[in-house]
């Protein structure tokens, strides 16, 4: 169990009032006894995630970050609803217990969900797992299988047909992220103008079969069974989930996928063990997804470049808060350099593209 994802101390300025939270939860969750011990999960650069440990039960609390927030981001009610309704079609969602809209309780909306205990893979594969290349490859394929399963969920049967508007999704994403990027621009950040122009020019039609788009599907948002680490038992971070083009979601995921052959500066961005022996390359990932989903993908350069640009937009929104002193988290100081590297990667893809 030592590999189970652990919480740590709470970062400066991100503390919660245990007594206030305890009072609220006991009014909304039956048979809750004792006092909570609160700690914080160190991962994540957007919503803040805390562990609430009661003597007989454990919960996870999610709340928005402190400081400047994009208008449509960090919708706690939306994420709470997705967890509860999507679970019927995708059993890897944790159970959500309560959504608090009264910002006077902790200073923001929040929701509380089940804690799924398990292993979360971060930058490197834990040596204790002792996976062979074959086992790693099988886990990687299982990871892709879950993404295909998600994209095939009958979202109407889950009551989520109103979650997003699939028509015009591709265009809205390009325009929306261009707008959000410009609003979060700082004097030291790149403009991305050549990439934005290329994306607008090469924009394909929406895929004919829309699906649930996770929008942040990575290994560090997936929980592995501690007793059988080859098995995925949970998927986290549904903040950005919507309905849209599944290939755009694939592009989002591959934007984070740093493979072993990537140059040293790119390796510095890696947040998951996608470079481990046995892991699929980006091209193998796309080929396996295409095989499993039955979708022909012959223009992946567009979706990958979009994923890199969108990731830069997320990075820049977070860096904007750091640049303007709205967060003290020192991890974000280097995000402008990550942004510049993402732009270079995009320009390389465009330079080699045959689209």
Automatic annotation (TrEMBL):
Pfam families reported for this sequence: APH (PF01636)
Molecular function as annotated in GO: transferase activity
Domain Aminoglycoside phosphotransferase: 38-274
InterPro entries registered for this protein in UniProt: ACAD10-like, ACAD10_11_N, Aminoglycoside_PTrfase, Kinase-like_dom_sf
Any coiled-coil regions, as ranges: none
Gene3D superfamilies named in the record: 3.90.1200.10, Phosphorylase Kinase, domain 1
PANTHER family in the cross-refs: HAD FAMILY PHOSPHATASE, HYDROLASE, PUTATIVE (AFU_ORTHOLOGUE AFUA_1G12880)-RELATED
Protein name in UniProt: Phosphotransferase family protein
Source organism of the structure: Aquipseudomonas campi
Lineage, top ranks: Bacteria, Pseudomonadati, Pseudomonadota, Gammaproteobacteria, Pseudomonadales
């Amino acid at each position: 169990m030592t590999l189970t994802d652990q919480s740590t101390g709470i970062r400066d300025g991100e503390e919660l009032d245990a007594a206030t939270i305890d009072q609220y939860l006991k009014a909304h969750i039956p048979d809750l006894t004792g006092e909570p011990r609160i700690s914080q999960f160190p991962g994540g650069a957007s919503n803040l995630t805390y562990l609430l440990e009661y003597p007989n039960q454990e919960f996870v609390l999610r709340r928005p970050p402190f400081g400047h927030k994009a208008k449509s981001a960090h919708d706690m009610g939306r994420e709470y609803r997705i967890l509860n309704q999507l679970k019927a079609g995708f059993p890897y969602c944790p159970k959500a217990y309560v959504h608090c809209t009264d910002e006077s309780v902790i200073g923001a909306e929040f929701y509380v969900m089940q804690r799924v205990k398990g292993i979360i893979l971060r930058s490197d594969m834990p040596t204790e797992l002792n996976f062979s290349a074959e086992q790693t490859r099988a886990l990687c394929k299982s990871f892709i299988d879950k993404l295909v399963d998600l994209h095939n969920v009958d979202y109407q049967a889950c009551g989520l047909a109103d979650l997003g508007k699939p028509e015009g999704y591709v265009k809205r994403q390009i325009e929306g992220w261009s707008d959000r990027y410009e609003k979060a621009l700082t004097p030291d950040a790149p403009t991305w103008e050549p990439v934005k122009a290329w994306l607008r020019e090469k924009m394909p039609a929406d895929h004919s079969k829309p699906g649930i788009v996770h929008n942040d599907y990575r290994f560090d948002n997936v929980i592995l069974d501690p007793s059988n680490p080859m098995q995925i038992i949970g998927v986290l971070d549904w903040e950005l989930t919507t309905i849209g083009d599944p290939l755009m979601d694939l592009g989002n995921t591959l934007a984070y996928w740093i493979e072993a052959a990537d140059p040293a500066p790119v390796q510095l961005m890696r947040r998951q063990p996608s470079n481990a022996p046995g892991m699929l390359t980006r091209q193998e990932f796309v080929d396996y997804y295409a095989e499993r989903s039955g979708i022909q993908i012959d223009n992946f350069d567009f979706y990958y470049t979009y994923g890199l640009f969108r990731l830069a937009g997320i990075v820049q929104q977070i860096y904007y808060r750091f640049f303007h002193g709205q967060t003290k988290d020192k991890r974000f100081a280097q995000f402008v350099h990550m942004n510049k590297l993402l732009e270079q990667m995009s320009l390389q893809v465009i330079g080699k593209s045959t689209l």
